[in-house]
Design a protein that fits this description.
Helix content is 39%, strand content 13%. By secondary structure, it is α/β, with parallel strands linked by helices.
């Protein structure tokens, strides 16, 4: 086994002269807090998704909470979400006082299962949080037929399509995250978007407490700064190129790993994949050992930093049973470095290491 001291990181932002120039212009303007640049970023994101407007906030996690609050969701209500997702959606549901109803995922795609979602709907269901994971759309066509408001979480899937529609353009509300390792990064920040002007106005009323005609006990300071928005706007201009690069790298990985034991990402008919993460499933070689952790350690010793794409499923945190798809994904899914800033020589090294790791015996 080859051991290297040069590590290829799992994630790395793509920052260029455009982002540096945009931030410098804001610094020279003397206006650093929320202002005209945030408004331009909101309009740009809404135009990209084909929506009426957006409300920028300080994080993707808070965007989820704001989305729930503008729908009037609170104590006594239920919100459906998948178990195989990061903790942020569950935490947002808890903060508004509602109850999270977990459902399992499609085993092949890692996306929320529409049939199980339908079965989980009760008279108390007020929304479905739909995290489009890893760059692939959930089955929006079937989810939209359930008659429950969808909150699309596009933190990992901006630019993907489902049945000819942009992911993020179907739900009652859409949320985005602009954290440092996201498709479009601003260092931190989030946004709530919608075609409904009433919902957008409610979101703005929650974002800031000053200047309102009356006191709102739920309003607080959730504002994005012009500095963050400047980076976001520069990234939005580059997003088409980012997505092209991601798809091209995914094609190279697919070619390199064809014929190995790794199970490659599934792309169902009618859905496109923009590869925020290149997630493979590894086959178990034996029983009684943590195959995934051992694999991650071997790859890191060879200079390729891979990760579990979801640290731990929600049902495991909550000690719930009956989520076989999520449990299997947690035990078998592995994310390979894939991002626009990945150099061609790094891609070649990743391919060599991966082929060696999963060569069929």
């Amino acid at each position: 086994m080859t051991i290297t001291t040069t590590m290829i990181p799992h994630s790395r932002p793509s920052i260029d002269r455009g982002e540096i120039r945009a931030v410098t212009e804001v610094l020279r303007s003397g206006h650093l807090a929320q202002g005209a640049v945030v408004e331009r970023f909101e309009r740009g994101m809404a135009a990209y998704l084909g929506l009426a407007g957006g409300v920028a906030v300080n994080s993707g996690t808070m965007a989820l909470e704001v989305a729930l609050r503008v729908l009037g969701i609170g104590p006594g209500d239920e919100v459906i979400l998948p178990s195989y997702v990061c903790a942020a959606p569950w935490q947002a549901v808890q903060r508004v006082g509602a109850q999270a109803r977990l459902v399992d995922i499609e085993p092949e795609t890692f996306q929320i299962d529409a049939d199980l979602t339908r079965a989980a709907i009760t008279s108390r269901t007020r929304a479905i949080i739909v995290p489009h994971l890893f760059g692939l759309s959930a089955d929006l066509t079937r989810l939209a037929q359930l008659g429950v408001p969808l909150i699309e979480d596009c933190a990992q899937t901006l630019g993907a399509m489902e049945q000819g529609r942009a992911v993020g353009s179907v739900g009652t509300l859409t949320v985005c995250s602009f954290y440092a390792n996201k498709l479009l990064c601003a260092g931190e920040g989030g946004m709530v978007l919608s075609n409904d002007p009433v919902l957008l106005e409610r979101a703005r009323a929650l974002r800031e407490y000053d200047g309102a005609p009356s006191l709102n006990p739920l309003a607080t300071n959730l504002k994005m700064t012009d500095l963050q928005a400047a980076v976001g706007l520069a990234q939005l201009d580059r997003l088409p190129g980012f997505l092209e690069r991601r798809v091209r790298l995914a094609r190279e990985y697919r070619e390199a790993l064809a014929g190995t034991s790794a199970i490659l990402p599934a792309v169902p008919a009618g859905r496109s994949h923009i590869y925020y993460r290149f997630v493979v499933r590894i086959s178990k070689r034996g029983s009684g050992s943590d195959e995934l952790s051992e694999c991650l350690e071997r790859l890191e010793r060879q200079g390729v930093q891979c990760r579990k794409p979801v640290f731990q499923s929600l049902h495991r945190y909550l000690d719930l049973k009956g989520f076989p798809g999520s449990a299997a994904a947690e035990d078998e899914a592995l994310s390979i470095p894939l991002y626009p800033a990945l150099a061609d020589e790094e891609v070649a090294q990743v391919c060599i290491v991966m082929r060696d790791e999963w060569r069929r015996e």
